[in-house]
Amino acid sequence: MRKMTIIGAGGWGTALANVLAKKGFSVTLWARRKEICDNLFKTRENVNYLPGVIIPANVHFTNDFEEAVKDSELVLMATPSMVMRDIIKKIKPFITNNTVVVSASKGFEQSTLLRMSEVIAEELGEDHPIAVLSGPNHAEEVGKDLPTATVVASKKKSTAEFVQDVFMSPKLRVYINPDIIGVEVGGALKNIIALGAGISDGLKFGDNTKSALLTRGLTEIARLGVAMGADTHTFAGLAGLGDLIATCTSQHSRNWRCGNQIGQGKKLKEILEGSNMVVEGVRTTEAVQELSKKYDIQMPISEELYKVLFEEKDAKTAVIDLMLRGKTHETEEVVRTERENW
Fold it and tell me: pLDDT digits over 314-332, tens only?
């Protein structure tokens, strides 16, 4: 039986382990503590992160990196972005040059501003087969076998097609995309806009407000992505618009929930201390502040959210400041020639 490995026993890692197990693979799910593994083995349910979903018998649990990774054809990283480099270093001795490593983490490394695939490549080498998986994929729905689509990106088409074949199922449709930059940027930055969407809902603003936020938010995501080398078309796809819609409109989204509580008046520190899950959008907002400076681009929504999160700016005041920004055109480069001739 072919072996596949998932590193990270959160909701997303557990849901993907189930997908692979139902396809008949031998799946090893790595969790960071032995007591977590023991509980998963006894109950066959991830009560803390994916309650109500039974884990198949061909999913095995371990907190040992060698046992998890050795002889595996594919290792999928479903860990928070802040620990990606550390874990890659630890599994490196146990993988071969042919082991495909897939990032399902959405964020940037704070100290370097690198995307997750870049972090992996720095540790394993640029020629190592690396892919990323992203899209509108709530773990709660994937775990319940609800129809879902996702996208896999890699610099190498053969690597993307391999991952596509591994994960494709009657309930999970997998597309491939060569634009690894765009897929990662879209997956990371939508969490910032989801924080804003949650704040908007917490403030009891309406559909008009959130629609404008999502639309202009997507413009910001694409603006940074293109500056970093992405294909603008990627942001109209699953890792861009698709993931943005899912994350900004669903109560499954931890970023939306965090923003919603901020909109209701809670402090960020209080919210994070009361959650057992990582809210990636918070760290990503910090990283994007630096990235916008690095690439010399304007990201007004992200900037105002940074001020709300880290400078205790009043959320309503931030909205007013966004609304009263200097007048501008909706479209950018595409119609520059036309508008100059008005």
Answer: 999 998 899 888 888 887 6
Helix (H, G, I), strand (E, B) or coil at 174: strand
Cα separation, 107 vs 84, in Å, equals 10
pLDDT, mean of each 10-residue run, the chain (342 residues): 96 98 98 95 96 97 98 97 97 97 97 98 98 97 97 98 98 98 98 96 95 96 98 97 96 94 94 87 96 96 96 92 84 54 50
Give counts: helices (H), strands (E), the chain. Answer: 16, 10
pLDDT at 337: 47
Annotated binding-site members for NADPH: 12, 32-33, 49, 106, 139, 254, 278, 280
Which CATH number does 181-336 carry?
1.10.1040.10
**Tens-digit pLDDT profile for residues 110-162:** 999 999 999 999 999 999 999 999 999 999 999 999 999 999 999 999 999 99
**Residues 217, 193: contact at Cβ < 8 Å?**
yes
Q: What is the pLDDT of residue 332?
A: 65
Quick one: how far is CA 126 from the chain centroid?
A: 22
Q: Which residue in this structure is represented by tokens 């403030």?
A: 203
Active-site residue 190, yes or no? yes
Query: What residues are designated binding site for sn-glycerol 3-phosphate?
Result: 106, 135, 190, 243, 253-255
Helices (H), the chain: 11-22, 34-43, 65-69, 84-91, 116-124, 139-143, 157-167, 180-202, 207-228, 243-249, 254-263, 268-273, 280-294, 300-310, 315-323, 336-340
- For 232, other C-beta atoms within 10 Å of its C-beta total 15
- Topology of the domain comprising 3-178: Rossmann fold (3.40.50)
Helix (H, G, I), strand (E, B) or coil at 227: helix
Of 190, 294, 307, 327, which one is the catalytic site residue? 190
Binding residues for substrate, by number, are 106, 254-255
pLDDT at 63: 97
With contact defined as beta carbons under 8 Å apart, do 89 and 124 qualify? no
Binding residues: 8-13, 32-33, 49, 106, 135, 139, 190, 243, 253-255, 278, 280
Domain spans, the chain = 3-178, 181-336
